[in-house]
Design goal:
Elements: H1 2-128, H2 134-142, H3 145-156, H4 166-186, H5 189-195, E1 212-214, E2 220-223, E3 243-244, E4 253-259, E5 265-271, E6 292-298, E7 301-306, E8 309-313, E9 321-327, E10 332-337, E11 342-348, E12 357-361, E13 374-376, H6 379-382
Antiparallel strand pairs: 1-2, 2-13, 3-12, 4-9, 4-13, 5-6, 5-12, 6-7, 7-8, 9-10, 10-11
Helix pairs in contact: 1-2, 1-3
């Protein structure tokens, strides 16, 4: 009996193992499928939230844009109405003055006609009375009401007595000019807004490539073909012609301007401190990794770079100054042509994960065509 039971157990054991293995395999497979379904649902939910956020952002931007357009339209209406009122006032005065002159000219014409008539009559008399002298004819014509009428007319129709109120007109012109100066001082709005975020910055010579000369004021970088005798440290770029700012930022809104006039090649932007400094890899170049954002200018063409992806920009203007705006609350990096605040490109980062430093590359001199320095315009220069 024991032997029989043992044999039965021995017979059932492999079956039990196979059954258990099958059971657990099915359970694990079911769990894995459920996990994938949950992940699929989570991704779908995330996509739905992102789509809703995109719709919300576009709606908010449209509302802000419409409000701004309405304000500018209202300003246009106010200015146009003020212009019409001012010109109507001048026109009314002009019409009144011209009308007065027309009346005086008409009176002169009437008297002129009377004089011509009297002269013609006098000439007839002189022909009839050939014995009269010229003096006698003049005395005859000059007698009576006509002489007094002419004298009165000449007295009241002096052109110097009829004139515009030039003092008032000059005051109007002065007020109009003052209004123009005020509007220009307030616009463009973008320039006033960005310059309110202007942040002082200096370059860190310890990060500069040995072929870059950093000015004593630490606001200017110039390429030289001579390798400078500088200390070798971990922070210094040894291949790419870069230099970073001494300061770094991790909050707030900041704006910088860089003078690039006279140059045919440059790169500038923002970077995390973790940007590679050594070697010939493109990772050391601005915008070639996820941790830096830049705009490059070369031979008349602008290109925005980030994460190794290039964005050619359809802009032909050769700007003298480039503005860089960074908003940590919005996770935004924006580049502009400061000359007329032309938007070049904007990167929406979302959330910055580290401090940011300003980064400049003046480029090689390209046989003298790119020998000009690249210069940071701090407060005293940027507001000019």
């Amino acid at each position: 009996m024991v032997c029989t039971v043992r044999h039965v157990l021995a017979f059932l054991q492999p079956c039990s193992f196979g059954f258990c293995h099958f059971f657990f395999s099915q359970e694990m497979k079911l769990t894995f499928q459920e996990r994938l379904k949950r992940q699929k649902d989570a991704v779908a939910c995330g996509m739905k939230k992102l789509d809703a956020k995109r719709t919300e952002i576009k709606k908010k931007a449209l509302t802000i844009r419409n409000n701004i357009e309405r304000k500018y339209e209202e300003m246009r209406r106010v200015l146009e109405e003020d212009c019409r009122t001012t010109l109507s006032l001048l026109e009314m005065e002009e019409k009144a003055t011209v009308r007065a002159l027309d009346d005086l000219i008409e009176r002169n014409c009437a008297v002129f006609s009377d004089i011509e008539f009297q002269l013609s009559e006098g000439l007839v008399d002189s022909e009839a009375q050939s014995g009269d002298t010229v003096t006698e004819l003049q005395d005859r014509v000059g007698q009576g009401w006509l002489v007094d009428r002419v004298e009165d007319l000449l007295r009241v129709t002096d052109p110097g007595l009829v004139r515009l109120d030039e003092v008032k007109a000059e005051q109007m012109l002065d007020l109009t000019n003052n209004l123009l100066l005020f509007i220009r001082s307030q616009t463009p709005v973008a320039k006033r807004l960005l310059k309110s975020c202007l942040t002082e910055v200096t370059l860190d010579p310890n990060t500069a490539h040995p072929k870059l000369i950093i000015s004593p004021s630490k606001d200017c970088a110039t390429f030289t073909s001579v390798w400078q005798e500088v200390s070798d440290n971990e922070s210094r770029f040894d291949t790419t012609l870069n230099v970073l700012s001494l300061q770094s930022w991790d909050s707030g809104r900041h704006y910088w301007e860089v003078d690039v006039r006279g140059k045919v090649y440059w790169e500038l932007g923002l970077t995390y401190p973790s940007i590679p400094r050594k070697g010939r890899q493109e990772n050391c170049w601005l915008g070639r990794k996820d941790g830096s954002w830049c705009v490059e200018f070369f031979d008349g063409d602008y290109t925005a770079w980030h994460g190794g992806k290039s964005h050619p920009l359809p802009i032909c203007t050769h700007f003298d100054r480039i503005g860089i705006f960074c908003s940590f609350p919005a996770g935004l990096v924006m580049f502009l042509g400061e000359d007329n605040m032309t938007p070049l490109f904007a990167f929406c980062v979302g959330t910055f994960t580290d401090h940011l430093q300003l980064a400049l590359c003046p480029g090689h001199d390209l046989q003298g065509s790119n020998s000009q320095p690249i210069k940071i315009c701090n407060a005293a220069h940027a507001k000019s």
